[in-house]
């Protein structure tokens, strides 16, 4: 249903009826939270018809289907996005006005879906939006986490993790699909039986099992009647309660199965710095992969008899190494349950699976101890061993005597199962997520694989959905853009290029500045409400929001803030543009130095924000619990986008794209997708600094960087670093930030110091920041450059990325749905 077909009267009655049915109240008595539920169910009614029609059309056309396998889907909130995509914003806003409610307030009642945590999960969500909006058959497959990652609280400057109970009021959009439940087996042993024809049969015994039950969530395409599905799996015990054990007094045993099921779906990515965490994480991966692949094979078999032709109708995309067990699991199903020979099964699997690598960081290329992997997944481990045996044979055949190749490419080596190696060997396509990242994979991280099978490798630069991050997140700018060039950009972002014609126009610049100012006022109110800090909307909003990791260099940013503060203390009349530094980031629960960096940012904020002598020239704000819904407020208000990762470390980045689309200028290194952003917008409309990827790699290879040289020779940097350990920002505990100081200098250890080159890039960063200061004073130049950033963001739509995947990897056919 598109907006112009919308029946306001009927919708209004439905909302009032839902309030009555759900809460035994009239609409006048309902709270905003209750109205949210009522509106969500009414919108779901509209969607359901499209959902049924979509899947009927897919069945009719027997369309090839993508299963996008991901541990994370960072969807944000659903209601606002669904209303936009059924093109009924105006009508629903009017209905709610008539009922005495504000649509924005109602949207705020919804919890963000706690199904992801960072760029990888947000990318998956953008891809689902693009696939539906472009009309391609696809399922997202993941886990229905009960508590997500965590809700971040800042207490006394520290990150505190509390459960994010996002499902406590239920999810009005989900549909439980009991009929597709699957059995998932862990542990036990594998018995081999030989039949009369001499064929071996592998039987897993003495295992523990859980039931995987799918919940379907609608993924609504923009104005095209298409509704795809995000299928997230919940875990339930096979037998809820063992009454016999309970009667014997074995109370723990009575609920053992229930506890196993509960822990699998409790939290996203359990902290794996201890053995139990590692085991649970592997359980989670196998749980949702086995369930998803059983479902995909079952769905195929309902219409087709020959599983040898599965690749004609099904493709599995592995979103990073987490879903790699899909390769041996599909082998298991084909061999053990469908009677395939090894070679026939391998031929099918290697035509069905494709792998996206998101990182060059070694710790993200998962490895599992053999002992754990083989105990938890005994049959899967046998299959992985056989894949490895055959692959190593092939390596030795191609490279006689090349034991160095065997060492780097083996799937099982040094007591570990290497998931990235398995993903490359078992997939027909391996892609990076930015041009620079893919080159680094080919030349360094996966160099030997590229040498042996170059045809598998390709690049797919990441993208974001303009429907979420401009149309929904920045209504004022979206309306302005549409007013200038029409609304084609909503489904064809490159069309936004036409905006460049207006970049030099004085009146347009003034209109753009006013929109930015209104968005800044909105964020100022949010900061006052949530942080209690008064921020000047006329100051330059300097924004770094993303996961907190050392390579993303939030530390470089805050060290530079400390340096600026020192300059202002020495000369309170120093001529500088007032600036508000805005940080937003969660640190992984077990990542000590990242959590300490959050404490440092907040400690610096406490000192600076409460020092009247600097006349408000600097404010520092840490946004608590950074997530999709508050990200939309931040992107819309940002002037400057901090993309300052150590060159060669960031796979792609997507906050860089979201900020660009909202008219922020980039200060950044030539890393990840920054390289391509600069190509699109022109180096003159960005602030680029620091070492190149090649320089970083050469510096590491030659081992010729000593941060102590900088410490000894640069008085300003030395002063900043000494403030980490002299109590300037922690008078009650001067040693509090010693670990950060040591990570930068580490004079008493053989460990490498300043691994991410914060000090080496510091002066170049400072110089770029003064260029920003100078440029921001020229209002006309800044507005023109900001409009050009919006106008040149067309390449970075996830629609473009998905189109490339479809053309080069997935080979799906577009399906038209009419009601």
UniProtKB/TrEMBL annotation:
Main location: cytoplasm
This enzyme's EC code(s): 2.4.1.1
Record-linked CDD domains: GT35_Glycogen_Phosphorylase
UniProt record, GO biological process: glycogen catabolic process
Protein location: Cytoplasm
Iron keyword on record: no
Entry keyword annotation includes Disulfide bond: no
One function term, GO molecular function aspect: pyridoxal phosphate binding
Residues with N6-(pyridoxal phosphate)lysine modification: 658
Keywords: Allosteric enzyme, Carbohydrate metabolism, Cytoplasm, Glycosyltransferase, Pyridoxal phosphate, Transferase
GO cellular component: cytoplasm
Pfam families: Phosphorylase
InterPro entries per record: Glycg_phsphrylas, Glyco_trans_35
Cofactor field: pyridoxal 5'-phosphate
Catalytic reactions of this protein: [(1->4)-alpha-D-glucosyl](n) + phosphate = [(1->4)-alpha-D-glucosyl](n-1) + alpha-D-glucose 1-phosphate
Primary role: Allosteric enzyme that catalyzes the rate-limiting step in glycogen catabolism, the phosphorolytic cleavage of glycogen to produce glucose-1-phosphate, and plays a central role in maintaining cellular and organismal glucose homeostasis.
Family: Belongs to the glycogen phosphorylase family.
PANTHER family the record matches: GLYCOGEN PHOSPHORYLASE, GLYCOGEN PHOSPHORYLASE, LIVER FORM
Protein name according to UniProt: Alpha-1,4 glucan phosphorylase
